[in-house]
Every structure is written in C-alpha cells, then in structure tokens.
Amino acid sequence: MPSGHAEVKYALPGAISHHAIKRYKWVVTEAAKSSVDDALRIPEGAIAIPADAIISIDDRQRIVSYGHGAEAVFGWTRDEVIGQFLDVLIAERCREELRRHIEAFAKEPVGARRMGGRRPAFFGLRKSGVEFPVEAAFSMLLVDDVQLYTIVLRDTTAQRRMERDQRFLSDVGAVLATSLDYDDILSRIAELTVRFLADGCIVDVVQDDETIRRWKVVLADPHKRDLADEMQRFPLDRTMPHLAAMVLKTRRLHIVEDIAEDYLRSIAQGPEHLDQLRRLLPRAVMGLPMFAHGRFRGALVLIRSHMGHPFSSEDVVLGQELASRAGYAIDSAQLFHSAQEAIRMRDDVVRMVAHDLRNPLNAARIAAGLLLERAPDACEYNWIRQAAERIDRTIGRADHLIEQLLDVTRIESGGLAIEASRVPASDILADVDDTFAALATAASLELRVERAGPLPDVSADRERLLQVFSNLVGNAIKFTPPGGSIRVGAVPEGDVMCFFVTDTGPGISAEDLPRLFDRFWKASRHDRRGTGLGLAIAKGIVDAHGGRISVESTPGAGSTFRFSIPMARVVTPPQEVLAPDAEGGEGYGRAPPSR
Amino acid sequence: MAELLLVDDDNDVVEALLEILEGKGHQVRTAADGAQGLMRIQERFPELVLLDVDMPVLSGPGMAYRMFIQNAGREKLPIILLSGAPDLRLIAAEVGTPYYLAKPYRLVTFLALLERALRERTPPAPQTPS
Fold first, then answer.
1. What is the pLDDT of residue A30?
2. CB burial class (10 A; 0-12, 13-18, 19+) of residue A218?
3. Which of A148, A188, A193, A271 is deepest in the core (most CB within 10 A)?
4. What does DSSP say about strands A200-206 and A295-304: parallel, antiparallel, or unpaired?
5. Are the C-beta atoms of residues A445 and A412 closer than 8 Å to each other?
6. How far off is chain A from B52, nearest CA to CA, in Å?
7. Which residues have a Cβ under 8 Å from the Cβ of A499 and sit 6 or more positions away?
8. DSSP strand E in A220-365: where?
9. Confidence class of residue A181 from pLDDT cuts 50, 70 and 90?
C-alpha cells in the first residue's frame, strides 16, 4: 500500500453485506488511515458488537441508512428513522454543535475523522429519552456525485462507567496508602464516595467495646453541611430503626428504593430525627457491611437524594468493593492505633522506671562518697577507697544505661531536644581528641583526629554531637584489636559538614549493615557489651539535627561511619529581640491572664 | 554552717544526706513532700532548700511556686533541685533556680554546688507569670 494515501473499498454501512462493498471507492489521506482501518472492520463488527451503531446521512443530514446495531443502541427501528433528520438520535444540547461539526468536516479534504476518545464526542438520545455518551468516527463518501456521511457510533456508557469506577477505586487505594489515621481515612473515603457514588455517606463503626459509633456523615450538597453535623451528633437509639439499622443488624447488603415520606416516618426516632430525615431527603439508600478478616467492622450507608437514580448492579459491586477496602482500612488503623498506644505505654513505663531507679542509685552513690571521705588516710585502708570508687563508677555506668533508654524513648516520641548553636567544627574535633585520647591509648590503639586547616562552623548541639562521637568512637575502641588505628575528621560537602570515624577493626558483615541503626539490635546475641542502643541514639541525634548517618564496611578491613550536620549560615542575621507581651502573656499557647 | 531544709520522699537518700550534711556541721530539717516542706518553712525560714521534684501530695516545683507566692520574694531563699527526673534542666528553668543536680550525683559535686549556692544565695525567679 503506498504510504501517501490509501485506496480502500468500503461498504455503505447499514447494508451489512460484503457484496455491497465493491461499488464504492474512496480516497483518504494517511492522517485518517487509522480511522479507516477501524472502519474497515465494521461489517463484521456490526454483527458481533451491537454496541456499534452505523448510520449514514445525506448532505442535509437526513438519515439514509440505519443498521441493526443502531436499532439496538437507539431503540428506534429502521423504518421509524429513515428519512428523519439526524437530530432525532442526538441529545438536544449537542445537536447544534454536531451539525456545525459535520458541516465543517464536509469542507475539509480529509475523508475520515474520529470524535471522542478521552471525552465523549457528544451524547446520543435513545427512543426512551435516556441520553448516553458516545464516541464517533465520521467518513465522507461521494456516491454518484452525492455526498454521504457515515457515522459509526459507539455507546461508551459501560466503558465510561468502568473507567470512572477504576479511578474511584484507585483514589480510594491512594487514600488508604497515605494515612494510618483512623479519622482521616474515614473522612476521605466518605468524601470520595459522595463525589463518585452517592449524594450522602454515613459511616458507623463498631468500636473496641462492641458499641457502634456514628463516625462520619458527609453530604455532597454544600448547603447541607449543618445537617451533616447535626446527623453526626444526633444521639441515635440503637435499639430503634434508623437508616443504618438494617445493615448493622443483618450485616448484609441492604437496599431501600423509592423512599417516600411514610418510610421516613417509620424510621424516625422523634420529631427532631424526622426533621433531619426530611431535610436529607433520601430517595434510595444502600447499606453495606464492612468486614475485615471476617470481623464485622461497621456499616457504610450510601444515600441518593434524586429521583430516577436508583442504585444499579454496577453501583452495588462498586459499593461492596469500597466497603471491603474501608473495612480493612479501619482494621489497619485500629491496629496501628493500638500499636502506638502500646509504644506510648512502654515509654511511660521506661520513664517511670528510669526515674525510680535513680533514687536508690543516688543513695548508694552518696554512701560511696561518704566512704571515700571518711576512710582513714593510712595505706591499709586503701581497699576502702578502691571499693568506694568502684561503686561510684558502677553507678555511673548504670546511670548511663538509664540515660540511653530515656534517649531512645525521647527519639521515638520525637521529643529529643536539640539546642543548636554555632560551633566551629574544629572545636568539636578537639572535644573528641580530649575525651578519647586516653581511652584509645589504654586500648593500645592510635587515635588520629585530623584537624588540618580551618573548618567552617556547624549548627549543632555540642553535647549531643559529642554523644554521637562517644558512641561511634566508643564502638571503634571496643571492637578494634590492639595495634589498630582510628581516624576521626570532617570534610565540608556543600551546605553540610561530613564527619567521619574510620577504624581498622573486624568490619561489619553485609547482612548486618541494614539493621545496624535499629534499636536493641546487636550483631551477636552473646555480645554483652552495651545495650545495642548506641547507634540508634546516634542516628536519632543526627536525624534531629537534620543530617544523615551512614556506614560502609569491609569485613576484615574496617568500618567507616559518616554523618552530616548542617553548616551554620555564613552571615547571622541580627537577632530580633521579642519583648514579652505587655498584657502579661508569655510564649505561645499560654492564655493571657483573665482580668 | 547553715540551716537547711531537705525535702525528699526517698528515705535512703534523706538518711545518706543527713549523715553527710550533719557531719559537716549543718543544721538540717527534713520533709517527705512539698506540703510538709511548706509547713517547715512556716515554722522557721531555712537558709536554703534542697528539693526533690517528683513527690506525693505536692511536687518540688509546686512547692517552689507556692513558696514564691506566700513569701512574695521577701526572703531570699535559694533552692537546689535534686532529682532523677528526665529533663531536669527544663524543670529548673521553670522553677527559675540556677542550682540543680541530676540524681545519681557524686557527693563531691553535690558538696561543691551546695557551697556555691550558700555563697551566692540566688533566689528562684519563676517563669510562670503570677
């Protein structure tokens, strides 16, 4: 086939016979080829897919040909429409535009064109008066000097519905994936539901104590926002009928249609409730049970307020899909909530125990101090001083462990306080040198703190940063065999300072690396040195500074820990001094004193 | 030598400190909670209060606050906060005292702080507006 144009034979649509094809020839440009290709398949398609309607009109837009497919789509018989204007098949609001479209098409050199695609081309009109979205392809034929137009129409109702449902479910999925907050999830699902599926949505949730709570009422109509609030707050008597009562009782799909005043009266729990129901004006109600892992989680009630919009079987399928996802969402949100609650309780216990442990430790430490003070000077009493010092040291270690536990709970609750100030990076390195030089020497290790040249200032909490080094260098000293070396230094990288600690220790195996910063994690269960909290705390402190910590290691050759800390800004803007409010209020969130 | 008020609900801590402080010649009265502490102050003003934070009936900061109200700052009564509470520094800032020491503290550190407080005698300046 030449690439510039295509010469094809084509049947006048409607006469669904291959034998009729041969009389007609037409030429189309390459641009329209795909449409023609589509059109070429029509003779078979028209038989196989009744959703395709094929209609031909003359230059005055009167129907001259009307196939079986068209009869199925529009509901009119061939005899009823032949000779009528095309308008009879088109929704009134689309007629003018379509007429102009066909007229413009007639003036173009192109022989075929598609209309529609992502959006419906226009809306068709069935004999029953119901409108429906269509996609259309047009072609022009010259038959014995008479111009004919053939329109292939496809009813896209089902396709649009499917696309919309898919979009809805994927939106619901996205909502569920972005939040674990119960209230947030239910609100957003209810809002999506009133956008896609109903005019109103009620969510009733079974709570932990098996009571049912009206969690959400969302109505699409912005003027009914007050009503939604009233309905959400209304103290329903759960032993009496109400909109969600049946589905809560039977735990099965429950649909009520053609709702009229007498139904509302039958479920009203008094004048105020009846007034709410009348303002809500439900015409059809679909109650859907929500389950997760076989457990009943509540009911999702969809409300339609317009006549002539009952719930279709597709709506039911979609509603059930939605209810099932909502059920699982509630389930995970509840699980997440109880996990959070458990963590909070554990942290409270840790804080309490830590505090309570410190009193006896304190009494013991004072007693050790007393022994030290009162031990006679003579050599023979040295053992008392040594024992007292050992007690003191041991208490210091115990307190350090308590402090680590507290730090972990602070980090997890986001309460680790960082008091950042401008600190020269070289001062921090000097701190490291001062603190660990003796320890390294005692372990027969070389500690090299590289402080060549001036380094920029960082914005950091000096004490906390020293704590990070204490963990990293402490580990290096602990694990590097005698004779090895530890290097500590800092390298400016963009707007952060990258600190590093490198050792010549045994290294960390690749499989252990990913979990290294997890709390309570230790490479070896038998290793009793430390709590396994040090690196988790180091990470928490670096995170709280807005930096990052990482590790590289070659088993047998050593490990390198790196962490970044933001640099202090080059020019410090003048500090604005905020005078306390003359009215007496001091700080945010504190109400001024009442007078 | 000074007259001190020691407010702490842990008996072991109280006894250990009594031994030390009385050995140094200080005169020490004790109270097991903030409410008792206030009563001791009403009986007679000490020169300095050694104050725990978490106690039954009335906490250390609660007692410090009432002292400030009742006393209206007329007497300069320094407070040393001694506690195992996390974030003691913040509690000290709230009470407004420059003297605080986290339990378990070393005896030498404690004695040095006591000496300093008795020398300076800086009374608390609470943050909370009255």
1. 37
2. buried
3. A193
4. antiparallel
5. no
6. 10
7. A425, A428, A469, A488, A489, A490, A562, A563, A564, A565
8. 254-256, 284-292, 295-304
9. confident
Amino acid at A296: F
Give the residue carrying structure tokens 């396709």: A159
**pTM for this model (two decimals):** 0.56
C-alpha–C-alpha distance, residues A411 and A517, integer Å:
13
Q: Which residues contact B86 (CB under 8 A, 6 or more apart)?
A: A351, A354, A355, A406, A410
What residues in A contact B15, CB-CB < 8 Å? 363
- End-to-end Cα separation, chain A, in angstroms: 94
Give me the interface pTM, i.e. the ipTM. 0.90
Tell me if chain A has a CB within 8 Å of the CB of B110.
Answer: yes
The residue behind tokens 């996205």 is: A174
pLDDT tens sequence across A439-471: 999 999 999 998 777 888 999 999 899 999 999
Chain A residues whose CB is inside 8 A of the B109 CB are none
- Provide the b/e sequence for A257-293 (b: ≥16 CB within 10 Å): eebeeeebeebbbeeebeebbeebbbbbbbbbbbbbe
Beta bridge partners of A491: A498
Using DSSP, state whether A139 is helix, strand or coil: strand
Q: Is B76 helix (H, G, I), strand (E, B) or coil?
A: coil
Q: Does B35 touch chain A (CB under 8 A)?
A: no
Q: What is the largest CA-CA distance in chain A?
A: 134
Strands B48-51 and B3-7: parallel
Window 87-106 of B, Cβ < 8 Å to A: 87, 90, 102-106
> Quick one: which of B60, B55, B32 has its CA closest to B124?
B60
Q: Strand, helix or coil at A521?
A: coil
On whether any CB of chain B is under 8 Å from the CB of A110, the answer is no
Locate the chain A residue with the closest alpha carbon to B13.
A363
